Amino acid sequence: MNKITYHPKDELLSSHANGDLPESLAVAISLHCELCPQCQKKLDAITNRLASKTWDSTGSKEEKDANEKAIDSDGFDSMLANIMALEIEPTHLAPEPVYTLFIDDKEYQLPYILHRYDNLKWNHLGAVSRTRLNEEQDTRSNLLHIKPGGEIPHHTHKGFELTLLLDGSFEDESGHYQKGDFIWLDASNSHSPKTSEGCLCYTVQNAPLYFKQGLSKLFNPIGNLLY
Protein backbone atom coordinates (compact mmCIF):
# COMPACT_ATOMS: atom_id res chain seq x y z
CA MET A 1 0.00 0.00 0.00
CA ASN A 2 1.39 3.42 -0.93
CA LYS A 3 2.19 5.93 1.78
CA ILE A 4 -0.18 8.90 1.96
CA THR A 5 1.85 12.06 2.56
CA TYR A 6 -0.66 14.90 2.36
CA HIS A 7 -3.61 15.06 4.77
CA PRO A 8 -6.41 17.50 5.71
CA LYS A 9 -5.75 19.76 8.68
CA ASP A 10 -7.27 18.79 12.02
CA GLU A 11 -9.53 21.85 11.80
CA LEU A 12 -11.12 20.42 8.66
CA LEU A 13 -11.61 17.04 10.32
CA SER A 14 -13.28 18.75 13.28
CA SER A 15 -15.57 20.76 11.02
CA HIS A 16 -16.51 17.56 9.21
CA ALA A 17 -17.30 15.78 12.48
CA ASN A 18 -19.46 18.76 13.49
CA GLY A 19 -21.34 18.61 10.19
CA ASP A 20 -20.25 22.15 9.29
CA LEU A 21 -18.76 21.51 5.82
CA PRO A 22 -20.59 21.91 2.50
CA GLU A 23 -21.23 18.69 0.59
CA SER A 24 -18.26 19.12 -1.74
CA LEU A 25 -15.73 19.29 1.12
CA ALA A 26 -17.55 16.72 3.27
CA VAL A 27 -17.30 14.22 0.42
CA ALA A 28 -13.59 15.02 0.05
CA ILE A 29 -12.95 14.31 3.75
CA SER A 30 -15.01 11.09 3.60
CA LEU A 31 -13.10 9.91 0.52
CA HIS A 32 -9.72 10.68 2.07
CA CYS A 33 -10.57 8.96 5.37
CA GLU A 34 -11.72 5.86 3.51
CA LEU A 35 -8.28 5.73 1.89
CA CYS A 36 -6.30 6.86 4.94
CA PRO A 37 -6.51 4.83 8.20
CA GLN A 38 -4.50 7.51 10.00
CA CYS A 39 -7.07 10.25 9.36
CA GLN A 40 -9.99 7.87 9.92
CA LYS A 41 -8.57 7.16 13.39
CA LYS A 42 -8.28 10.90 14.04
CA LEU A 43 -11.83 11.51 12.83
CA ASP A 44 -13.18 8.73 15.06
CA ALA A 45 -11.43 10.23 18.09
CA ILE A 46 -12.80 13.71 17.32
CA THR A 47 -16.31 12.28 16.86
CA ASN A 48 -16.08 10.42 20.18
CA ARG A 49 -14.94 13.57 21.98
CA LEU A 50 -17.85 15.51 20.52
CA ALA A 51 -20.28 12.78 21.56
CA SER A 52 -18.89 12.77 25.10
CA LYS A 53 -19.08 16.55 25.29
CA THR A 54 -22.69 16.49 24.10
CA TRP A 55 -23.58 13.82 26.66
CA ASP A 56 -21.87 15.74 29.49
CA SER A 57 -23.69 18.95 28.62
CA THR A 58 -27.19 17.45 28.58
CA GLY A 59 -29.31 16.22 31.44
CA SER A 60 -29.14 16.94 35.13
CA LYS A 61 -27.12 14.92 37.61
CA GLU A 62 -30.36 13.34 38.85
CA GLU A 63 -31.23 12.19 35.30
CA LYS A 64 -27.77 10.68 34.80
CA ASP A 65 -27.98 8.91 38.15
CA ALA A 66 -31.39 7.53 37.20
CA ASN A 67 -30.05 6.27 33.85
CA GLU A 68 -27.12 4.58 35.56
CA LYS A 69 -29.48 2.87 38.01
CA ALA A 70 -31.64 1.70 35.11
CA ILE A 71 -28.60 0.24 33.39
CA ASP A 72 -27.64 -1.62 36.59
CA SER A 73 -31.16 -2.90 37.27
CA ASP A 74 -32.06 -6.57 37.58
CA GLY A 75 -34.21 -6.30 34.48
CA PHE A 76 -31.25 -5.29 32.36
CA ASP A 77 -29.09 -8.06 33.82
CA SER A 78 -31.79 -10.59 33.06
CA MET A 79 -32.16 -9.37 29.49
CA LEU A 80 -28.42 -9.51 28.96
CA ALA A 81 -28.25 -13.05 30.34
CA ASN A 82 -30.97 -14.16 27.92
CA ILE A 83 -29.10 -12.62 25.00
CA MET A 84 -25.86 -14.31 25.99
CA ALA A 85 -27.65 -17.67 26.19
CA LEU A 86 -28.83 -17.52 22.57
CA GLU A 87 -27.29 -19.99 20.17
CA ILE A 88 -24.85 -18.16 17.91
CA GLU A 89 -25.39 -18.55 14.19
CA PRO A 90 -22.38 -18.14 11.88
CA THR A 91 -22.43 -14.81 10.07
CA HIS A 92 -21.00 -13.84 6.71
CA LEU A 93 -20.21 -10.18 6.22
CA ALA A 94 -20.85 -8.83 2.76
CA PRO A 95 -17.87 -7.07 1.18
CA GLU A 96 -17.93 -3.28 1.30
CA PRO A 97 -19.58 -1.95 -1.86
CA VAL A 98 -17.49 -0.03 -4.36
CA TYR A 99 -18.34 2.30 -7.20
CA THR A 100 -17.08 1.34 -10.66
CA LEU A 101 -16.24 4.14 -13.08
CA PHE A 102 -15.19 3.79 -16.72
CA ILE A 103 -13.33 6.67 -18.38
CA ASP A 104 -11.05 6.64 -21.43
CA ASP A 105 -11.20 2.83 -21.70
CA LYS A 106 -10.03 2.42 -18.10
CA GLU A 107 -11.93 0.97 -15.14
CA TYR A 108 -11.63 2.48 -11.65
CA GLN A 109 -12.87 0.94 -8.39
CA LEU A 110 -13.71 3.91 -6.17
CA PRO A 111 -15.19 4.51 -2.69
CA TYR A 112 -18.93 3.88 -2.75
CA ILE A 113 -19.82 7.42 -1.64
CA LEU A 114 -19.34 8.53 -5.25
CA HIS A 115 -22.25 6.37 -6.43
CA ARG A 116 -24.60 9.24 -5.51
CA TYR A 117 -23.46 11.06 -8.64
CA ASP A 118 -24.88 9.51 -11.79
CA ASN A 119 -25.37 10.45 -15.44
CA LEU A 120 -21.86 11.84 -15.59
CA LYS A 121 -21.17 14.05 -18.61
CA TRP A 122 -17.50 14.41 -19.46
CA ASN A 123 -15.86 17.39 -21.14
CA HIS A 124 -12.60 16.60 -22.93
CA LEU A 125 -9.64 18.83 -23.74
CA GLY A 126 -6.66 16.89 -25.05
CA ALA A 127 -5.42 14.53 -22.35
CA VAL A 128 -7.69 16.10 -19.68
CA SER A 129 -11.32 15.14 -19.02
CA ARG A 130 -13.64 16.66 -16.42
CA THR A 131 -17.16 15.94 -15.17
CA ARG A 132 -19.12 18.14 -12.77
CA LEU A 133 -20.46 16.48 -9.61
CA ASN A 134 -21.91 19.25 -7.50
CA GLU A 135 -22.29 23.03 -7.55
CA GLU A 136 -22.78 25.12 -4.40
CA GLN A 137 -22.81 28.78 -5.42
CA ASP A 138 -19.18 29.43 -6.45
CA THR A 139 -17.85 26.14 -5.06
CA ARG A 140 -17.80 23.24 -7.51
CA SER A 141 -16.71 19.64 -7.19
CA ASN A 142 -15.52 17.57 -10.16
CA LEU A 143 -13.84 14.39 -11.19
CA LEU A 144 -10.72 15.18 -13.20
CA HIS A 145 -9.02 12.53 -15.33
CA ILE A 146 -5.63 12.98 -16.99
CA LYS A 147 -4.32 10.41 -19.45
CA PRO A 148 -0.78 9.00 -19.17
CA GLY A 149 1.71 11.64 -20.24
CA GLY A 150 -0.81 14.44 -19.78
CA GLU A 151 -0.10 17.83 -18.26
CA ILE A 152 -2.06 20.93 -17.19
CA PRO A 153 -0.17 24.12 -18.18
CA HIS A 154 1.37 26.30 -15.48
CA HIS A 155 -1.34 28.14 -13.53
CA THR A 156 -2.34 29.64 -10.22
CA HIS A 157 -5.71 29.89 -8.48
CA LYS A 158 -8.02 32.83 -7.96
CA GLY A 159 -9.52 30.99 -5.00
CA PHE A 160 -8.76 27.63 -3.39
CA GLU A 161 -8.25 24.29 -5.10
CA LEU A 162 -8.54 20.98 -3.29
CA THR A 163 -7.31 17.87 -5.10
CA LEU A 164 -7.85 14.39 -3.68
CA LEU A 165 -5.99 11.77 -5.69
CA LEU A 166 -8.26 8.76 -6.18
CA ASP A 167 -6.01 6.69 -8.43
CA GLY A 168 -2.67 6.94 -10.20
CA SER A 169 -0.12 9.65 -9.47
CA PHE A 170 1.04 13.07 -10.61
CA GLU A 171 3.77 15.53 -9.78
CA ASP A 172 4.39 19.27 -9.87
CA GLU A 173 7.04 21.74 -8.74
CA SER A 174 6.30 20.97 -5.08
CA GLY A 175 6.31 17.19 -5.00
CA HIS A 176 5.03 13.80 -6.08
CA TYR A 177 1.47 12.77 -5.18
CA GLN A 178 -0.07 9.31 -4.86
CA LYS A 179 -3.47 7.73 -4.23
CA GLY A 180 -5.12 9.20 -1.14
CA ASP A 181 -3.11 12.43 -1.02
CA PHE A 182 -5.16 15.51 -0.03
CA ILE A 183 -3.65 18.65 -1.62
CA TRP A 184 -4.96 22.10 -0.69
CA LEU A 185 -3.73 25.09 -2.74
CA ASP A 186 -4.68 28.77 -2.90
CA ALA A 187 -3.71 31.97 -4.73
CA SER A 188 -0.22 31.83 -3.21
CA ASN A 189 0.52 28.59 -5.11
CA SER A 190 1.28 28.05 -8.78
CA HIS A 191 2.15 24.79 -10.51
CA SER A 192 1.99 22.67 -13.65
CA PRO A 193 0.74 19.15 -12.75
CA LYS A 194 1.82 16.31 -15.02
CA THR A 195 1.42 12.55 -14.89
CA SER A 196 3.35 9.72 -16.49
CA GLU A 197 0.93 6.91 -15.58
CA GLY A 198 -2.33 8.89 -15.63
CA CYS A 199 -4.52 9.85 -12.69
CA LEU A 200 -8.08 10.34 -11.49
CA CYS A 201 -8.79 13.11 -8.98
CA TYR A 202 -11.70 14.50 -6.99
CA THR A 203 -11.37 18.29 -7.06
CA VAL A 204 -13.11 21.21 -5.34
CA GLN A 205 -12.62 24.83 -6.48
CA ASN A 206 -14.31 28.15 -5.88
CA ALA A 207 -12.78 30.04 -8.83
CA PRO A 208 -11.37 29.26 -12.29
CA LEU A 209 -7.70 28.46 -12.86
CA TYR A 210 -5.53 31.36 -14.02
CA PHE A 211 -2.80 30.57 -16.55
CA LYS A 212 0.00 33.08 -16.06
CA GLN A 213 3.15 32.23 -17.98
CA GLY A 214 4.08 32.47 -21.66
CA LEU A 215 1.89 30.58 -24.10
CA SER A 216 -0.14 29.05 -21.26
CA LYS A 217 -1.94 32.44 -21.00
CA LEU A 218 -3.78 31.42 -24.16
CA PHE A 219 -5.69 28.88 -22.05
CA ASN A 220 -7.37 31.51 -19.86
CA PRO A 221 -10.50 31.77 -22.06
CA ILE A 222 -11.13 28.05 -21.48
CA GLY A 223 -10.17 28.06 -17.79
CA ASN A 224 -13.81 27.42 -16.88
CA LEU A 225 -13.57 23.99 -18.48
CA LEU A 226 -11.45 22.86 -15.52
CA TYR A 227 -13.58 24.72 -12.93
TrEMBL record:
It comes from the Bacteria. InterPro entries: Anti-sigma_ChrR (IPR012807), Anti_sigma_zinc_sf (IPR041916), ChrR-like_cupin_dom (IPR025979), RmlC-like_jellyroll (IPR014710), RmlC_Cupin_sf (IPR011051). Residues 117-206 form the ChrR-like cupin domain. It holds the Pfam family Cupin_7. NCBIfam families: anti_sig_ChrR. This is Zinc-binding anti-sigmaE4 factor ChrR. It comes from Aliivibrio fischeri (strain ATCC 700601 / ES114) (Vibrio fischeri). The gene is chrR.
